[in-house]
Write a structure and sequence with these properties.
The complex is a heterodimer of chains A (273) and B (255). Chain A is of the alpha/beta class and 273 residues long. Chain A is 36% helix and 24% strand. In chain B, helix 3 packs antiparallel against helix 4 and helix 7 packs antiparallel against helix 8. Classes of the chains: A alpha/beta (273), B mainly alpha (255).
């Protein structure tokens, strides 16, 4: 299986020595009362420090499960994940997640939500925590909404707060699970600009799960295509475009089109490239 | 202010209608006392201290029984929400016993404890605990799991996860569970005070009971009015601030 992936790659996988994140032969089954679902089959991938890797695939292909396993929220049935060479045994603030569902805490205001993760950083003083929270809320353009209640925000603003909350404790890796899936196109395009700006400032390592090809081509250094269940990585795409990228760029649309064609191949059964 | 005026107007209208009906002479004043005679009774009972003493005795029983009921019910509700075995056993027991009107515990309590404060307390606890278990269990099952997942990625675990995430996330159902428990405790206590005759304390229910024995309708209605007022006041003082906070934060109600 590993050979197959390498053969189909448009580039060799990044060397292990510089890898921030290594996923090695991870498989996962879900047992329900009615059936056992094979969610992930022998998935391997590597992400270099400062790289943005997008994982795309048809819905139900297990890409969110893969992200959960990288985050440490779900245990794989086979294989393992290494972060900075250390095996991942559980969730922790070195790999923070922006979820698709609204995950802000309604009992805290916007500022309190960003402070939540910072309060769990024992090395920071209270003054430093406040300073960092202010800075990241300003970074996502919500400095005027620090005292707002969560339900008063629009969907896009909520995801901005979630992004600030995930960035503030300075994680090694940022994991994003279809974070903009529920937003309208205009809000999404703003957020693509924000993500690219934040990435160029911080050079965070990012794994971004999506089913939107243009989103993947816009944000990713590489795009990994997963097959339908059981999910496996069937193809790698390099996106060698300069940043910042526009979602309307013709070359970018061309790259997205190649991914989309390959995806149709996997849905039709088997990769044709 | 406008809402206050509307409420006062409504209450005044009710009192006027009552006064007119009693003065029409169609019903015996023994069975249908006027507003004034009830007010006179309440004033007299207030002056000679029987009313305040009855309120004190009743509130003391209520708070003790309610506190015990909540202290037992909340943890059991959390436990039944987290384990299928406990849900099937304690959960269904609670569901069954909650359908039993609390006044049905009175004969049981009197045979076990005699005419004592213990019997009274037992009835209140039995009236409270099952509904608290059910409301807590139901609420705990509806906490979105995403909160705990997000918190765990940020390094929250153990006591921190329970006190900083699970507890505040469960506030809406804790408050509704405790409110329901309060309503049931109040009803059970009144049943107990009417049926358990004891000399260690003379509560509002007993005021009502002896009003009937003495054919004193003004006392009966006066005690009922006080019981209603205490129920309203408890709702406003104990639960309304919490509900307002929750509605504001969760955005569940425009007001």
């Amino acid at each position: 299986m590993l050979d197959q992936v390498t053969n189909q790659s448009t580039s060799a996988p990044v060397a292990t020595a510089t890898s921030k994140l290594v996923v090695e032969r991870v498989s996962k089954w879900f047992r329900t009362p009615h059936a056992t679902v094979h969610a992930l089959d022998n998935v391997s991938m590597q992400v270099a420090a400062g790289e943005v890797v997008c994982v795309v695939g048809p819905s139900g292909c297990g890409k969110s499960t893969l992200l959960d396993i990288i985050a440490g929220l779900t245990k794989p049935d086979a294989g393992h994940v290494l972060a900075d060479g250390q095996p991942v045994t559980g969730p922790g603030p070195r790999r923070l997640v922006v979820f698709q569902e609204p995950s802000l805490f309604p009992w805290l205001d916007v500022f309190g939500n960003v402070m939540f993760g910072l309060r769990l950083c024992p090395e920071l003083s209270n003054g430093e925590r406040r300073e960092i929270a202010h800075r990241y809320l300003a970074l996502v353009g919500l400095e005027k909404f620090e005292r707002a209640h969560v339900h008063e925000l629009s969907g896009g603003m909520k995801q901005r707060v979630a992004l600030a909350r995930a960035l503030a404790p300075d994680p090694q890796v940022l994991l994003m699970d279809e974070p903009f899936g529920a937003l309208d196109a205009m809000t999404r395009e703003h957020l693509y600009d924000d993500i690219q700006r934040i990435w160029s400032d911080s050079r965070k390592t990012i794994v971004f799960v999506t089913h939107n090809m243009r989103e993947a081509a816009c944000l990713g250094d590489r795009v990994l295509l997963m097959s339908k269940a059981p999910g496996r990585i069937v193809q790698h795409f390099e996106i060698p475009l300069p940043r910042p990228r526009s979602i309307y760029d013709v070359e970018l649309i061309g790259h997205a089109g190649r991914v989309a064609d390959a995806l149709r191949g996997t849905i039709g059964g088997g990769v044709t490239e | 202010m406008k809402r206050f005026a509307i409420v006062s107007g409504f209450v005044a209208m009710l009192l006027v209608a009552w006064e007119l009906a009693s003065e029409s002479g169609r019903w015996s004043p023994v069975l249908f006392p006027s507003v004034l005679s009830v007010a006179r009774y309440l004033w007299g009972a207030m002056i000679d201290g029987t009313l305040l003493e009855a309120i004190r005795v009743t509130m003391q029983r209520l708070l003790v029984g309610y506190a015990i009921g909540v202290a037992i019910g909340l943890p059991l509700g959390v436990l039944t929400s987290s384990s299928q075995i406990l849900e099937d056993t304690i959960g269904s027991l609670a569901l069954g016993l909650q359908t039993l009107p609390s006044v049905c515990w009175v004969p049981f309590a009197v045979l076990w404890f005699g005419q004592t404060e213990g019997a009274m307390l037992f009835v209140v606890v039995m009236g409270t605990v099952w509904s608290v278990i059910i409301a807590t269990n139901h609420g705990a099952r509806t906490i979105p799991p995403i909160y705990a997942r997000a918190a765990r990625t940020m390094g929250s675990q153990g006591i921190h996860l329970w006190t900083m995430v699970m507890l505040p996330a469960s506030l809406p159902f804790l408050v509704s569970g405790m409110k329901q428990g309060w309503a049931f405790a109040w009803r059970s206590l009144m049943a107990a005070e009417i049926f358990v005759t004891i000399l260690t304390g003379f509560g509002l229910g007993q005021l009502l009971h002896y009003g009937r024995e003495l054919n004193a309708m003004d006392q009966v209605i006066g005690a009922m009015v006080v019981i209603v007022l205490i129920g309203l006041l408890a709702d406003r003082i104990l639960f309304a601030p919490w509900e307002r906070f929750l509605h504001r934060r969760w955005g569940t109600n425009a007001r």
